[in-house]
Write a structure and sequence with these properties.
- The chain is an alpha/beta fold.
- It folds into two domains: 9-307, Mur-like, catalytic domain (UDP-N-acetylmuramoyl-L-alanine:D-glutamate ligase, 3-Layer(aba) Sandwich); 318-466, Mur ligase, C-terminal domain (Protein-Tyrosine Phosphatase, Chain A), CATH 3.90.190.
- Strand 4 (140-143), helix 7 (157-167) and strand 5 form a beta-alpha-beta unit.
- It has 13 helices and 17 strands.
């Protein structure tokens, strides 16, 4: 499905000018030390609005979309393909909107518009699917999950499911999360496979989270009965009225053992026991998704096991360092995303030992547009942090007082909370209890990631100085 439509006449002249101008902009950006992850694509589409229709594409295209996990899955896929010796085009370091995808395709073709890569793995923003899928036309689209996200951008997950359904090419095969009935219902007429995790010891039968976006049957509006609930609306359910139920999974992860750090993946072609890259359920899903993609590509389990050897979760998502008598952990918690932060809070609270937290999930680039963004705090399960093992929480940044208020409403005692406006000053409040863990929870903003790294370095310095 990677063939392109050929422009003719004036359209061809305009397209080639757009391609050459975009390619020339790449070295200019490097010389001026600008990042420019989507500028070449923006320039190309400004000159030729239907640029994506005509730009050369790899022979096989895989796209990954969904509310959470798409970047991690793309990173895993690209690392595994690199290990397999595959030459792969990706936007893993760039933007996932139409201009970012265009930029990747520009770097992946020659000045004469010939594709230089046989395979592409592209991350696609859900809302941008209407500007990407009709022209890029992926062979396989992976949807990790569909959750409630930023109200300003995405609104309700069923709305996003509708956007994806309306714009998915009918020829594209889907690989869907079978434990997510909203995700599983996208583009029902397309060919599809499902992945999912079998029941785990930590699963329940009722949702304990503040958000549950699927309580009634999407077919008849009858009440859903959950066989088990993992979190929010993730689990296995059936309708008591019409018999609608969660789909059977083609790729099933079972025998998950977070002590031994292993998981067995079963499908019609066999099974393989894999080393877990992380003990968090979100990352277990990400790993299962990557394995399912490689099974779709025709790799057997022994081959996939070899390709996963030495892989780890990207340090931009999770990093742990021993410093003095404590462990300092930098952990991504997507700001304005109630569900993603709930999952992180639940994970941190369940980790053994005493914990101190620095909460700095502040999207700094949106500092002037915060009017609606505090509402997500009241969908988020801050109640997970009201546990004796979380002994101290430092809230910092532009919305430190909002975080403090939300923690108090969650029942966290006031004496466990410190409020510091300047992020780098938050380290001064650390208590550094021996053998405890310090978690620095930061948002997705690039500036915030750099700032989080500075806070981490300051925390490590203080911890090391404390034992001198």
């Amino acid at each position: 499905m990677g063939t392109k439509e050929k422009p003719r006449g004036f359209t061809r002249v305009r397209f080639m000018l757009a391609l050459w101008a975009a390619k020339l902009s790449v070295p200019v950006l490097k010389l001026t030390r600008h990042n420019g992850t989507n500028f070449p694509g923006e320039l190309a589409m400004k000159i030729c609005p239907d640029f994506l229709r005509y730009v050369a594409r790899p022979g096989k295209i895989i796209t990954v979309t969904g509310t959470d996990g798409k970047t991690s899955v793309v990173n895993l896929l690209c690392d595994m393909l690199d290990n397999a010796g595959q030459k792969v085009l990706s936007n893993r370091l760039g933007s996932n909107v139409n201009s970012g995808v265009a930029t990747s395709l520009i770097t992946g073709c020659t000045v004469f518009n010939r594709a230089r890569f046989p395979l592409a793995v592209l991350e696609v923003d859900e809302r941008s699917s209407g500007k990407i899928y009709p022209w890029v036309m992926p062979d396989l689209t992976v949807i990790t999950n569909l959750f409630r996200d930023s109200i300003m951008r995405n609104g309700h997950p069923e709305y996003i499911a509708g956007v994806l359904t309306d714009n998915m090419p009918p020829e594209t095969k889907l690989l869907l999360n079978g434990d997510d009935l909203i995700c599983a219902g996208v583009a029902p007429s397309n060919d599809r496979s499902y992945f999912g995790l079998e029941r785990m010891a930590t699963d329940g039968t009722a949702c304990l989270n503040r958000i549950n976006d699927l309580r009634i049957c999407p077919h008849c509006a009858g009440k859903l009965r959950y066989e088990f609930v993992r979190y929010h609306h993730i689990g296995r359910a059936m309708c008591l009225d019409c018999g609608f139920r969660s789909p059977d999974c083609d790729y099933s992860g079972g025998d998950v053992d977070t002590a031994a750090m292993t998981m067995t993946v079963r499908d019609a072609g066999g099974e393989g026991t894999y080393r877990l890259l992380s003990d968090s359920v979100f990352n277990i899903y990400n790993e299962l998704t990557a394995i399912a993609v490689f099974r779709e590509l025709g790799y057997d389990h022994p081959a996939i096991l070899k390709l996963m050897d030495g892989l780890k979760i990207a340090e931009s998502r999770y990093r742990a360092d021993r410093a003095g008598q404590v462990e300092v952990v930098m952990h991504l918690a997507k700001d304005r995303n109630a569900l993603a932060c709930s999952r992180v809070f639940d994970y941190v609270a369940s980790c053994p030992g005493e914990k101190e937290l620095i909460l700095m999930m502040n999207n700094l680039n949106d500092d002037k547009n915060w009017s609606e963004n505090t509402c997500w705090l009241y969908d988020c399960d801050f109640e997970f942090l009201n546990t004796p093992s979380v002994t101290h929480i430092i809230v910092t940044g532009p919305r430190a007082k909002d975080y403090r208020l939300r923690l108090l409403m969650a029942g966290v005692p006031a004496e466990r909370i410190d409020c510091v406006r300047e992020e780098l000053m938050s380290v001064d409040k650390l208590r550094l209890v021996p053998d405890s863990h310090i978690y620095i929870l930061y948002g997705t903003d690039t500036m915030n990631l750099k700032l989080a790294a500075q806070v981490r370095e300051a925390a490590i310095r203080k911890a090391e100085e404390a034992v001198k």
